[in-house]
Design brief:
alpha+beta; Glycosyltransferase; three-stranded antiparallel sheet; 18 helices; 21 strands; disordered N terminus; disordered C terminus
């Protein structure tokens, strides 16, 4: 982002946020960062004691669950945690995780995985750990896994099938969505740059373009598409689940890879979204789900995953609109403490009362803060962290919630792998001003993995 745009964004946000700044400015941010770091260390130690090398810990029962391969563990949480441990300076814990990967991790398994989830979580996690450490074995593991995912892209359209067997290459399920089609380019572009092999970048980019070329006459995308025929299977356009990562990665391909054509596609899609999907109600700004061919609103329900979108809008230059979207979600955080999975802005009531330990509002606050350093965004991140620590902490780690409206809030028994990679990193980077991260030149994936911006020596240039 240019200096002039950053200055304009800061000016446009200041008036509406000024009354909330004093409390934020009195916060001891380094001390709060230390609290985040302590919680991460504690949770990691619980994971190591009760679930070492397993995919996910169940923090109430101290049992485990598998993801993304049913019935077989691939060390998901361990891999997702690595670069968060590193940026927090938890170096012994980071090295223990790397040692496990090098000694134990093997993807030659006769089992089926989600291509998208495996890429953003495991390929991305290994690449970010390689970025932090420079260890070539981590890069080799990432490449081996990407090679096993590549058969999914061998369709007439170039859009990947949803599932692939890591050993046999057998693929399944052509009924996919924009997020799972276009959610590869930063990780796979990085892999091509590091290995000199263009296949990863080219396959990922072809898939991105394939979706864009099938947009409606008003430039909107629907949520389901056939990867073989390219035919749309649904009419609903959203910025929430099934679409979110597609829009992120259009912008990110410019930010990380310098892809100007992806920027053009981002601008076209974003202009259509802002033209047809903005809804203002009771002073709040929502991005509604609409018919992708007519722009007519089809649902007033909001998916919590859409809370990320304000940060993306600000990154793309729509600073005031992005701030308004994020502020809308922050008011729900103020109301419920923890965001419900679904909320109907017409009725003002939650439609899904649980929360899967989600990071999206913290993600948006972090991206906004990177642009203008307004303490308001730090304050939203602080509220997100303190509520999580109050309501989600269990005996053996952090767990999702079954009901955010009950008093006290009712816990479930599951810690998703993204918790280790996303909000704990966003909190720490928001609060710490750590010298291990370049706050001016950086890149985080949709899964929170850092592919640009780590500093491996204090005062040194970003790696």
């Amino acid at each position: 982002m240019t200096t002039s745009r950053r200055s304009l964004l800061a000016g446009s946000l200041a008036a509406g946020l000024a009354r909330r700044l004093p409390a934020a400015s009195r916060t001891d941010w380094p001390a709060l960062a230390g609290e985040v770091r302590a919680e991460m260390a504690w949770a990691w130690d619980q994971y190591r004691l009760h679930a070492w090398g397993k995919d996910e810990i169940r923090p109430i029962s101290a049992t485990v669950s598998t993801f993304p391969m049913k019935g077989h563990h691939l060390g998901l949480s361990l891999i997702e945690a690595l670069d968060t441990l590193w940026v927090m300076g938890l170096d012994n814990r980071f090295q223990a995780g790397v040692d496990w990967v090098k000694a134990t991790l093997d993807f030659d398994v006769d089992g089926e995985v989600s291509v998208f989830e495996t890429s953003i979580r495991l390929v991305g996690g290994l690449l970010s750990a390689h970025h932090a450490s420079g260890d070539p074995v981590l890069l080799a593991k990432a490449r081996d896994l990407a090679d096993r995912l590549l058969p999914a892209f061998a369709t007439p359209t170039g859009m990947p099938m949803r599932f692939v067997n890591l050993k046999t290459g057998a693929v399944r399920d052509a009924a996919t969505n924009p997020a799972e089609v276009g959610g590869y380019l930063p990780e796979w572009g990085t892999l091509s740059r590091l290995t000199g092999d263009p296949r990863y970048h080219d396959a990922a980019r072809r898939a991105v373009v394939a979706v864009f070329e099938r947009r409606s006459k008003i430039d909107l995308l629907a949520v389901r598409i056939d990867a073989v025929t390219g035919r749309w299977l649904d009419r609903r356009a959203t910025v929430g689940s099934y679409a979110d990562s597609y829009y992120e990665y259009l912008w990110d391909a410019l930010q990380l890879l310098g892809d100007a054509e992806c920027r053009r596609m981002y601008d076209i899609c974003t202009a259509a979204i802002l033209a047809h999907q903005q809804v203002r109600r009771d002073g709040r700004l929502w991005i509604a789900d609409v018919d992708f061919e007519t722009g007519a609103v089809v649902s007033t329900e909001q998916d919590e995953l859409a809370a990320f979108y304000g940060g993306l809008l600000a990154q793309g230059g729509a600073g005031a609109t992005g701030a308004a979207v994020t502020q809308t979600w922050a008011t729900l955080q103020d109301r419920f403490g923890v965001l419900p999975e679904g909320f109907d802005y017409a009725t003002g009531q939650p439609t899904q009362r649980g929360n899967a330990l989600r990071p999206e509002l913290a993600d948006a606050a972090f991206n906004l803060w990177l642009l203008d350093r307004n303490p308001r965004w730090r304050a939203i991140g602080r509220g997100h962290f303190l509520a999580m620590r109050r309501w989600n902490k269990a005996a053996y780690g952090y767990t999702d919630l079954a009901d955010v409206t009950s008093d006290p809030k009712r816990q479930a028994d599951h810690c998703p792998g993204y918790w280790w990679s996303e909000q704990m990193k966003y909190y720490y980077l928001l609060f710490s001003d750590t010298p291990r991260f370049d706050y001016a030149r950086n890149y985080l994936t949709t899964e929170g993995n850092v592919l640009l911006g780590f500093r491996r020596s204090v005062g040194g240039r970003a790696a």
